[in-house]
Amino acid sequence: MTRYIAAIDQGTTSSRCIVFDRDGAIVALDQKEHRQLFPRPGWVEHNAEEIWSNVEAVVAGAMAKLSIAPKDLAAVGITNQRETTVVWSKTTGKPVHNAIVWQDTRTDRLVRDLGGTQGQDRFRELCGLPLATYFSGPKARWILDSQPELRKSAVAGELLFGTMDSWLIWKLTGRHVTDVTNASRTMLMNLRTLQWDDTLLEAFGVPRAMLPQICSSSQVYGEAQGVLQGVPVASALGDQQAALFGQTCFATGEGKNTYGTGCFLLVNTGEKPVQSKNGLLTTVGYKIGAQPAAYALEGSIAITGALVQWLRDNLGLIASAAQIETLARSVDDNGGCYFVPAFSGLFAPYWQSNARGVIAGLTGYVTKGHIARAVLEATAWQTREVVDAMVADSGVALSMLKVDGGMTANHLLMQFQADVLDVPVVRPVVAETTCLGAAYAAGLAVGFWPDFEGLRGHWKKSFEWTPSMSAAERGKGYRKWKKAVERSMDWTGADEGA
Fold it and tell me: What CA dihedral angle connects 94, 206, 111 and 244, to 10 degrees?
């Protein structure tokens, strides 16, 4: 009898494979980083073939650590960086261009042109999303426009489009599919029919012939070949929806915040999509087999953990990401310094693609310790803005925030998050909820776990941070943050592009 479920987490900076046992506990893990390519300011790319090679390596590595073979796995699930876009040849299997990463801003002028006189909300009613450089549809259009022969090949069905889930499933099984959560991030899927929409395809200039089949998040797409020979590939979820599922947010009103390269707060809104009036995204939360889809409201923040990496790699102020907490604790506060990391524009709740990063409030008093503290505080303040928008849309005050992701290991950040939200912040025992969600969905598809209630029984609290900041201090800090955000806006003009 198979004893384990594997999950592949293809993320923005690395690929991981985690193996879980029947209790949802981690029993093996392997991880490998891939290169970040920056060919021009505002452009961010990945090599999709390098990523596939890394995925093969980490899958083999995780199984080797546990001394198991594919026959010991009941299924494998996939979770992925969502809007990152790959176009590849159906015949050769080779990408025709580097993958364009979700952070990339090269489609800035294109999305402005698509908005026309109606602006960024032109397609929101159909797809739940504002026009922004973030999403996959404009990236696919850009790739097709980049070389004259590509569009002709795409119309003929010779090219395939997909996000990273589609790329990996195709490499594993030879099938060209995606799930509803990833499809909902393209701007090409109708949010209510859960199918590709002709109006959207025509507007964005993306041929239907190159699109994958849209499937549920939890079903068997096919059997893997190669390193996972014979294992059912049984789930796909965009990383943030996977974390929502891994945090067992199965009821309307339950939500979570994931702290990774970016920061993503999702709240389950039930079986009907809720249109936001406060800058949030309406998205598909998950769809299990033939059951109705569960929808979610999402607040997406582009740069959080990536700012710590920038401090390490570009400025050299720290040697490792973990060192930022020690550096930030060398001072008592931010020294009046605020860091708005609008490297890829501002995401929720502003959706200002022409914003750029700023450090405000600098004086001769500020040290690298103050800057480190401002870097961490930026994540918490951005989350506060998203929570305020969630409350405005839902009318329900937040009573607790479930958190996960790598940055939750930073106690200074999590305490500051509780302080600026004025609610408890709670981390589960298994903080790798993105992989856990993909594993849960795959396990449900093959009967490894029977139902939602069984999964709920696995969730246990690991740590809780409670607020200790005065209302006056919280209010003053938030006002300063808002002033800094205003100074980041309108940095690039319509004639400058990214």
Answer: -70
